Amino acid sequence: MIQITPQMRVLAAIEPVDFRQGIDGLSQVCRAVLSENPLGGTMFVFRSRSAKSIKLLVYDGQGFWLAQKRMSTGRFRHWPTAADAAHCELLAHEFTTLIWGGNPQATQAAPMWRRIPLDPRGARPT
Question: Is residue 111 over pLDDT 70?
Answer without folding.
Answer: no
